[in-house]
Amino acid sequence: MPSSAYKTTPLFGGALTCDLPTNFADVSKLRTVPDNQEVYIDKDGFTSIIIDITERVNAPGSGIEQDGRALTVHLEELVGEDADTVKVWNTTETQFTRLDESIPAYTLIATQTPKTMPGESRGQSAPDFTALILTLLRLEKENTDVLITVNVPHIKGEYDEDEVDLALGKQGELIGDAVEHVARIWATFEVKDWSLFSHI
């Protein structure tokens, strides 16, 4: 399958830019999105990309240990009360090509499996599981954490179940595409106006 086409996309009024897939639509044109968030959704599927500007989490510890705890806090806030349905497969340090290499960033890949009550079956469109690729960019001077989340719902009949087994390192096509999207964001993410972080 050919690689996705991308286009440089202005975010938060052009204060940030990065490349996003051309087949993703700006959700704010369809419904209200919070001021600290940009949301794009695949017009041909179910995957979404969310860029969140949040207050920096001051976790205990220092350096990588502190950042790792902050990443966990953000993940728990993202999934809410369903933290016990989430499995983190790996966490890696991440480098944003167009930002100073001293700025720490981390990415994790996780899956969330919906809870079902005994005797209850999942609805037709409920996903078997949702893969999450979460990148945390820590802007200490700005007292800001930027979260980039790619949500990849896996709905029965919409993916090849034999191709996905994260325990064996098999990501399948949907997660593979999402990894490509997030890698493109790391390579192209740029801050055009640093004052953005004092306004949100």
From TrEMBL:
It comes from the Eukaryota. Coiled coil: none annotated. SUPFAM superfamilies: Mog1p/PsbP-like. It comes from Madurella mycetomatis. The keyword Protein transport applies. Keywords: Protein transport, Transport. PANTHER family: RAN GUANINE NUCLEOTIDE RELEASE FACTOR (PTHR15837). One of its GO terms (cellular component) is nucleus. GO terms for molecular function: guanyl-nucleotide exchange factor activity; small GTPase binding. One of its GO terms (biological process) is protein import into nucleus. The keyword Protein transport applies. This is Ran guanine nucleotide release factor. Belongs to the MOG1 family.
